[in-house]
Write the structure tokens for this entry.
Amino acid sequence: MTSAPTARPVRGTHDLFGEELRRHRHVAETGRLICARWGYEEIVTPIFEHTEVFARSLGDVSDIVTKEMYTFTDRGGDSITLRPENTAGVCRAVITLGLHQNLPIKLFYYGPMFRYERPQKGRLRQFHQIGIECIGAPEPLADAEVIAAGAHLLEELGVLKATTLELNTLGDLESRARYREALVRYLDARRNQLSAESQLRLTRNPLRILDSKDEGDRAVVAQAPLLLEYLSPASRDFFERVKDALARLGVSWVENPRLVRGLDYYTHTAFEFTTTQLGAQGAVLAGGRYDGLVKTLGGPDIPGVGWAAGVERLALLLAQVPTAPRPIAIVPIGAEAEAEAWVLARDLRRAGHIVDLAFAGKPAKRLKRADRLNARLAIFVGEEERARGTVTLRDLDRGSEEQVPRAELLSRLAAAQAERT
Ligand code: ATP
Ligand code: MG
């Protein structure tokens, strides 16, 4: 028997705690910090939207819409979907809030996303993404900035070297349409070599066959015509400018002519930072240009480019584990010292220190707890100390001890703090 259903989380969901939570927070906070430096302001949109927002923007043939969405009818009879990604919600919010009055608008987000998929390492049903969207900038420099900001974030997290930036272009809508025709012609002639899934995609979403994981599909795709050959001169020029800017910014990449984004509204640049360190879950940060999206959602015809990164995947990659903050433990000796200890704890907390004070117990037991919490200092308050007007300050790393006048304690601790940082 496994544990009672009430004590079991829903498949593909996960509790974050301890070291895992610290890794997670470090990724999210570094994302917020670095993206702010690049001029991206945070936005928080609701975790659910009208189903329409995703169905329209993701295209009703995409894998996400057909297989992965958590959709339900609420008590008022509206069809609601837990967001599987945040680009559509951010674009919807830009229209709702009228943010397109001042373009470009550069936004950052962090939060949970929901997809009904087969859970495995680095693949959850509730997971988190950080991401940026640069809306209203048609220039190739915007694509380069967005990618460079992603590279900067990965570098700051110490994982850039563990990743490869794969880069491709889908061209403008006309180039893409011409290519699509050629691709379908090629694949249709080899239809019976394709997986059942890709045979379905052939009419619905043929570009997606290019990044199929199926071995048979891959063999067929290996010889398929390349989009690069169908690019209009303007699309070709756009791609060259993106690459020029990236080179100047010191970002390196490899071209992957078969890299496509699953979604219909992508044009021009498509990119993915991938790693070989997470098994099949290789993509850590991925994005591209989505010039048709805002219009599709009922807004003005303005372009956009952005990326989303998987926080859980980046957290797994972190080489350095962010350390837990170390408290100061207060240890009262004798019943009379208890009340004094509470007040001292309050004063230290007000002064900005992390303080642990157990509710009861002998000094030896309290010291054991201090040890378990990895406290760096213990402060003893007792009969003798009170008589002298001091406290005993023990450095738990060195084992050294000294008497500190009660009146000097705060300034002493502040000085010790400053020394460490
Ligand atoms: P994959 O090919 O791994 O399914 P995707 O193309 O569906 O990825 P995107 O929609 O581009 O992913 O989302 C951006 C990032 O979010 C991914 O690169 C990945 O790091 C992360 N991500 C996507 N789906 C999940 C998931 N189910 N669990 C954890 N992270 C995810
Ligand atoms: Mg996916």
